[in-house]
Amino acid sequence: MDTTANTRQGLKELINRAGIGLALLGLVVFFSVFTEHFLTANNITNILTQITINLILAVGMTFVILIGGIDLSVGSIMAFAAVIAGKAMTMPGLGPTEAILLAVMAGLLAGMLCGLLNGFLSAYWSIPSFIITLGMLNIARGAALQVTDAQTVYAFPKEFSEFGSSLIFGVPVVFILALLLVAVAWFILNHTILGRMIYGIGNNEEAVRLAGHSVFRYKMIAFTICGLTAGIAAIVYMARLNIASPIAGIGFELNAIAAVIIGGTSLNGGRGSVIGTLMGALIIGVLANGLILLGLSDFMRQMITGVVLIAAVLLDQYRARYGRST
Amino acid sequence: MTNIQRLEAGSDNDETVLRVTGLKKHFGGVKALDGVDFSLRKGEVHALVGENGAGKSTLIRVLTGVHTFKDGAITLGGASFAPQSPQQAKARGVQVVHQELNLLSHLSVAENISIEALPRNRFGLYDRAETRRRARLALDAIGLSDVDVDAVVSTLGIAHRQLIEIARALQSDSAILILDEPTATLTDREKLRLFDIVRAMAARGVTVVFVTHHLDEVFAICQRVTVFRNGKTIITQDIPQTSPAEVVRHMVGREVGQLATKRPAIPANVPIALSLKSFRVAGSSSADGVSLDLRYGEILGIAGLVGSGRTELLRGIFAIDPVVSGTLQRDGVDISLKNPAQAIAAGIGFVTEDRKDEGLILSMPIAANTTLANMNLVTRLGLLRHRGEASIATEYGAKLQLKFGKISDAVSSLSGGNQQKVVLAKWLATAPRVLMLDEPTRGVDVGAKAEIYAILRDLADQGMAILVVSSELPELMTLCDRILVMAQNAIQGCVMPADYAEENILKLAYRQS
Q1: Which residues in chain B are closer than 8 Å to A184, comparing Cβ atoms?
Q2: Which terminus of chain A is more exposed, N or C, with fewer CB under 10 A?
Q3: What CATH number does the domain located at B15-252 have?
Q4: Which run of H or E residues covers position B504?
């Protein structure tokens, strides 16, 4: 109403937005002070490598959560896409370039197909995506095991694994790829009709439908994007470990969801950002790394990550309530 | 003279049960209540009126313990009253029945009535028989002997649900019962029943606070009326000493100009924009369906009771719900629409009944809402032009006299009337030739109502064909060139301006076929 109220509102908005970044900064400072090895080039490279796959999955998950959905199947889809890509790459009679190209295409397609199926089934029959993707979690995992006969696929061209482990100025190339994905997702969400519709559907599906837009189509796209990022994560995983295991990625969906939620995206949809997701993934990674450097056990680390997740959701509740009362 | 007054003041009938003095309530910098004085007498029905944002809701929230207050004083039954929670307010006998009902729809009527304190038997287990007995008593007390206590709430109509809430509120000895917009979703007949129940409650000594937008109801049932404006009490008047026009003047703080209802009839040679022939939507109870012609420049009203198929007709035209049979012509050409996108492409716009659920994305900016139905205006190759969007939204805002802070503010920051203008802006941005509106001024205050009427008339004068559904007959009579009356999914007749009278419309609306 008056300008003071506006600036105060603006300040709160700023703190709200910067809050997650400040939390990350606080963690970094804390671990830098209290551990010896946290702020070393080696360790930072380590952290970035470790969070890459989760970040890639979380970028796609952000789209799905923004429309008010959830995707529990990304871990399984990643494994399925990986074994499909692995099979393609190890097909006899292919040169390294052809093999890699074919594998990447096959992996991405497999991921997108699973995502498309998730989106189609849940949007066409208006079934909660929780149930559909829970089904897909089992289907994709089963398919991955079936295709490989539960055997790990290996023996990839060495050019491929070089991509997985190469660094530019100490930054893993795969992390740069993930950052690129974040940037593309940010652009889509903020500067395209698709992005506008995704936020709109998360807030009020009916209003979007009555304004003449196909909610069905945009939901399919959101899930397909999520499947695609699972496919990309599969390729990165293969390049890093040089294998494609049908039991890869178990439980990865939960970490991806955690990164999105810690990043401030509302589980009810309609509110949040992919920049937040980046922060969320960084916080989870920094926390994991720092706590181990502090000498805590991996079990303790897991507990603390859980506490952070719950704290983030509580914070989000307060934010939502505060936003309503003003 | 003075003797008589004192006598009256001292008589049982005039006993003041609640007195609010100098109540103030601020939210941040916003003064929701800015010095409210208000009193209630035992056993009266007291109307609380005012435009949206005048402070009625905030006062109710303070009285029912949802909000606390610092400045001012409230006394209830002679003792100071400052509830810290809804429980405390209830303990002192202050109950509220909200506009949005708070029933558990999958439980029985009896369970709903006792839900605040479910009875236990001597083993500490839930006592079903006692629950049913209490419910029967509570229902009988307000004359609802026809309602089965074992019925599941979701199987009951909206009117019964409301009455069940009232029964629940009254079973604990209520001193004061606040009804917040109780008639918003009721038909006229259900309204009369509610009024009978309210009168009976008042006769038993319950004080009823009646919050409403409908002045005819105020004058039908209330003894006194208090008018709020901008968080202040403007005046409290005895109903016999005032008139609806005077109350409106107090609400608005100025005279509300009536639109000239005398307009030349639309000549028959003006082309027909939209024509329906035997148009039947799914679930229609009429074999013949609806036939109507809407001409360019015409505002055609559709009156009818709730459930007569008015909203369903509009939803059918806009291809939201399936159409079973019949034809729809635009500019004399048969078309079949499969979804809202095709309807929009055919030049039709639809301002829906419920702006919160269907019309707006509340937490998104005014600008984003304005362009929602026509993204082509602000995109190039699928990319958004934020600056172009802001300027287009600002332009429509200016056209519709929208009052807003920044165009990037969330729509939820606007008042009801201004929110409705954003819905209107959204559809005008699609440049429709036919505009349909369902309850265009529901929950909109008096001043904004008049502005919306003027906007619609202006659009019609520019040649737009407008179809308006409304439950408010004065609204239709002010706005429309003709009024069609619907009942049982069919048009029962047409009322021309010369015959405009509520009686003429209602006669058609109540016709049973």
Answers
A1: none
A2: N
A3: 3.40.50.300
A4: helix B502-509
